[in-house]
Amino acid sequence: MSQQPFRAVGRPIPRIDGLEKVTGRARYVTDLVIPGMAHAKVLRSPYAHSRVRKVDVTRARAHPGVLAALCGADLTWCEPYYGPAYRDRPVLAIDVARYEGEPVAAVAAVDEATADEALDLIEVDYDPLPPVMTLEEALSPGAPRVHTGKPQAGHFADLASLRPVPGTNVCHQFHFARGDSGRALASADLVLDETYRFPPVQHVALEAHAAVAVWSETDGLTVWASTQNPYSVRVELAKMFGVPLARIRVVVPHLGGGFGSKTYAKLEPLAAALARVAGRPVRLAASVAEAFQTVRRCCARVHVRVGFRRDGGLVAVECGADYDVGAYADIGPRVVQKATYTATGPYRVPDVTLDARAVYTNTTPGGAFRGFGVPQLAWALESLFDVAAERLGRDPVELRRQNFLAHGEEFAPGDTPIDGKLEESLGRAAETIGWTQTGAADRGRGVAAMLKASVAPSVSEAIVRLHTDGSVTVLASAVEMGQGTRTVLAQIAAEVLSVPMARVIVVQPDTAVTPYDQTTSSSRSTAMTGRAVQVAAEDVREQLLHVTAAELGVAVTDLALDDGSVVTPGRRLTYAEVLMLRFGMSGGEIIGRGVVAPGRTAAPLGGSTPFWEVAVGAAEVSVDEETGALRVERYVSVADVGRAINPLLLEGQDEGGVVQGLGHTLFEEMLYQDGHLLNGTLLAYRVPRADDAPPALECRFVENADGSGPFGAKGAGEGSLIPVSPAVANALARLTGVRLRDLPLTPERVWRALRARGRR
Amino acid sequence: MLRPFTLHRPETAEEACALLARLGEDAVPYAGGTELLLLMKLGLLRPPHLVDVKRIRELNELADGGRLTIGATVTHRSLERSPLVRARCPLVASVARHVANVRVRNVGTIGGNLAFADPHSDLATLFLALDAHVELVSPGGRRELSLGDFVRGPWETARRPDELLAGVRLAPWPSRAAAYVKFGVHERPTLGIAVALGLNGGDGRAGARIQDARIAVGCVGPRPARMFTAEARLRGVSVDRVDDVVGAVGDSAAAGVDPADDLHGSADYKREMVAVFVRRALRVAAARAGGVEPATSFPYAVVA
Amino acid sequence: MDGARSPETIHLVVNGRACDLEVAPHALLLDVLRDVLDLKGAKRSCDTQVCGACTVLIDGMAVSACTYLAVEADGRAVLTVEGLAEGETLHPLQRAFLDAGAVQCGFCTSGMLLTARAMLAETTAPSRQEVLHYLRGSLCRCTGYRKIVEAIMAVAETAR
Question: Nearest CA of chain A to the CA of C36: how many Å?
Answer without folding.
Answer: 12
